[in-house]
Design a protein that fits this description.
Oligomer: single chain
CATH topology: TIM Barrel
Order of helices and strands: HEHHEHEHEHEHEHEHEHH
Number of domains: 1
Helix content: 40-55%
Distance between the termini: 77 Å
Largest sheet: 8 strands, parallel
Radius of gyration: 25 Å
Number of strands: 8
CATH architecture: Alpha-Beta Barrel
Structural class: alpha/beta
Shape: globular
Length: about 325
């Protein structure tokens, strides 16, 4: 009997202790670290019905189509991204190989359409005004955008689409005027710097130095965002762009004063099929530039490009340290704050 009572008391004690043991186990169990998510996407586009009609893409599964702001917001939500910069594609009307009736009117209409879309989400989105900087109306459109409540954020230039050639003195002279005007209004400057691929324009060290030494000194009061890591994407395989990025990254690493206001977005450059060698090279360039100067971006969610969530996963796969990933994920350009 004494043995039976002792066993019953022990059983009761263990039953009473079970909740406490369970609580202690829960309290000390390690929790999985929260996934790092980019705070902002610094390179997005919308496509209006007008610009799609102008481009007139051939039918097919990879055909460019209209992207309204509601679709962009849904994609950002899917990725957990709160803020985004929307770059107007109005510069497409200024492509030199096309003859466009009422060109400037259509440029203004596209910029205004993009601004109206973005205005629906004022806490999350900002708009950049787009135009071909070599056109006669370029400075007039910049001034108009500077006075617009949405478009005054910044300007977007696409050197490839506009056939800007940095080895031509007259092009550089015109770009200086545009940079000065944007700087005066403190409008951010986003540049798709990659020269035309289809026209096989020169693009390498000479063009990088022209940009750095002749244009960057004009941006003393605003930031300049070089898109696509000086390439075009999707993907990293672009030797001329890699050469340009090398020159700019080395200048940043040695603290060249002309890189003080220079930032780089990584839109559509890191991809799931990226080679290890290219991934290592991209990380090397990121470290030369400094993680604080890298802006995450994914580019438009077209059929041939990744969506924001997929693009962020591809970027996270780069052999960066966790501290570097966190720093880049948390970077938010001044124009989005």
């Amino acid at each position: 009997m004494p043995l039976l009572f002792a066993m019953l008391r022990l059983g009761a004690t263990l039953l009473l202790a079970l909740p406490a043991l369970a609580f202690a186990s829960q309290a000390t169990a390690p929790t999985a670290p929260a996934a790092i998510v980019a705070a902002a996407d610094h390179h997005q586009h919308l496509f209006s019905p007008g610009i799609i009609a102008f481009i007139a893409p051939k039918p097919g599964s990879d055909a460019l189509r209209e992207i309204p702001v509601t679709e962009l917001i849904a994609l950002l939500d899917e990725a957990g991204i709160r803020r985004a910069a929307v770059m107007s594609t109005a510069y497409m009307y200024g492509r030199p190989s096309r003859v466009v009736e009422d060109e400037y009117a259509r440029v203004k209409a596209e910029n205004d359409w993009t601004a109206a879309q973005v205005a629906k989400y004022p806490q999350r989105l900002r708009t950049f005004c787009g135009f071909n900087p070599l056109k006669d109306y370029a400075l007039a459109e910049l001034e108009r955008c500077a006075a617009h409540p949405q478009l005054r954020t910044g300007i977007k230039m696409h050197f490839g689409n506009s056939d800007v050639q940095l080895d031509k003195p007259e092009h550089v002279a015109r770009l200086k005027e545009v940079f000065r005007a944007a700087n005066r209004h403190r409008m951010a400057i986003a540049v798709h710097m990659r020269a035309s691929i289809s026209l096989e324009r020169p693009y390498g060290e000479a063009q990088a130095r022209a940009f750095l030494e002749q244009l960057m000194p004009e941006a003393t009061r605003t930031m300049v965002q070089v898109a696509h890591f000086a390439g075009s994407g999707p993907g990293y395989e672009d030797p001329p762009a890699n050469e340009v990025m090398r020159v700019l990254a080395e200048a940043a690493a040695r603290k060249d004063p002309n890189t003080c206001n220079l930032y780089f977005d990584v839109a559509s450059i890191a991809t799931p099929d990226m080679s290890q060698a290219h991934a290592r090279e991209m990380v090397e360039r990121i470290r030369q530039v400094g993680a604080d100067k890298i802006l995450y971006g994914s580019d438009a969610a077209t059929p041939t490009n990744m969506k924001p969530r997929e693009a962020w996963a591809a970027f996270r796969a780069l052999p960066l340290t966790e501290a570097e990933r966190k720093r880049i994920a948390g970077n938010v350009a001044a124009y989005l704050r």
